[in-house]
Specification:
The protein is of the alpha+beta class and 87 residues long. The protein has three helices and two strands; from the N terminus they run H-E-E-H-H. Helix 1 (8-23) runs antiparallel to helix 3. It is globular.
Length: 87
Amino acid sequence: MKPRRGEEARCEELLRKLDAAVSTHPGCQVTYLMRPHDDSGEIARLAIYESESAAEAAANDTHIMALRSEIHLLVEPGHIERAFFTI
């Protein structure tokens, strides 16, 4: 995602809160906040869960949904969150 101009610090703060909330959720194995080495201003979040049901439970947690909703308002249009599952 790319924070809107002037919202970079607030977006990162909320992503850190989201990362902390997700990391304590049952079934979460590891979480990462990442930035590229370029000057794009983008930031990414990755969470790995032990199962699809654990990921869905975290995604439906009201606190986590509220944080994601706030973050969505701070980023450039076109941002989508995606889930990937092992095959």
